[in-house]
Specification:
The complex is a heterodimer.
Chain A: E1 3-6, E2 11-14, E3 19-21, E4 23-26, E5 32-38, E6 44-50, E7 56-59, E8 62-65, E9 75-77, E10 86-94, E11 97-102, E12 106-111
Parallel strand pairs in A: 2-12
Antiparallel strand pairs in A: 1-4, 3-9, 5-6, 5-10, 7-8, 8-9, 10-11, 10-12
Chain B: E1 5-7, E2 10-13, E3 19-24, E4 31-38, E5 42-50, E6 53-57, E7 64-68, E8 74-78, E9 87-94, E10 104-105, E11 109-113
Parallel strand pairs in B: 2-11
Antiparallel strand pairs in B: 1-3, 3-8, 4-5, 4-9, 5-6, 7-8, 9-10, 9-11
Classes of the chains: A mainly beta, B mainly beta.
Chain lengths: 112, 114
């Protein structure tokens, strides 16, 4: 079946630091890959997506590249802000399942 | 604001009871999904409807059922509730069913079973 593995954290960084949150996946076929963000007390917001190998999704300074050879979709940002503090979920869809399969989420804390 | 609405925001009930959660998708979206978020299981896909028809099932218990109405809103029915059913229940919607369609999530309903 499908599965997503990501570091759970918490990951604590200082403002303006470089961010990487690792995500690897297992899936049959060719899934689409997503990053969602959840702020405290809120629902999930789509951050970015990629639908085929070597696609790069980007939004609000965040980027992730679909790497089929390493089955990875790592999230990066060059300079984080306090407002980026949230829980980040890597997810996939496809390979025979119509729902999203999520990782366990990475809690990111940015200190001023 | 994603455009997906869910009611109620909070629900507290007792074991053995039955509750109904409601979801209205984004305008124009035909597909509705239900997810459960709990501390021990994380985010799990429960069920999907597309234009009124059940499309896919995930880890949905037999005590749970859902439907999508002609106006495209959806309801998730949870019966014979147990303490372990306490969780956040999210609804999401998308324009279509293909793997590349983005799913937009509502704010969730927090269910507490006492």
């Amino acid at each position: 079946g499908n599965s997503v593995t990501q570091m759970e954290g918490p990951v604590t960084l200082s403002e303006e630091a470089f961010l990487t949150i690792n995500c690897t996946y297992t899936a049959t076929g060719y899934p689409s890959l997503f990053w969602y963000v959840q702020y405290p007390g809120e629902g999930l917001q789509l951050l970015l997506k990629a639908t085929k190998a070597d696609d790069k999704g980007s939004n609000k300074g965040f980027e992730a590249t679909y790497r089929k050879e390493t089955t990875s979709f790592h999230l990066e940002k060059g300079s984080v802000q306090v407002s980026d503090s949230a829980v980040y979920f890597c997810a996939l869809r496809g390979g025979g399942a119509d729902g999203l399969t999520f990782g366990k989420g990475t809690h990111l804390i940015i200190q001023p | 604001d994603s455009g997906v609405t869910q009611t109620p925001k909070h629900l507290i009930t007792a074991t053995g009871q039955r509750v109904t959660l409601r979801c209205s998708p984004r305008s124009g979206d035909l597909s509705v999904y239900w997810y459960q978020q709990s501390l021990d299981q994380g985010l799990q896909f429960l069920i999907q409807y597309y234009n009124g028809e059940e499309r896919a099932k995930g880890n949905i218990l037999e005590r749970f059922s859902a439907q999508q109405f002609p106006d495209l809103h959806s309801e998730l029915n949870l019966s014979s509730l147990e303490l372990g059913d306490s969780a956040l229940y999210f609804c999401a919607s998308s324009a279509g069913t293909g793997r590349s369609y983005e799913q937009y999530f509502g704010p969730g309903t927090r269910l507490t079973v006492t």
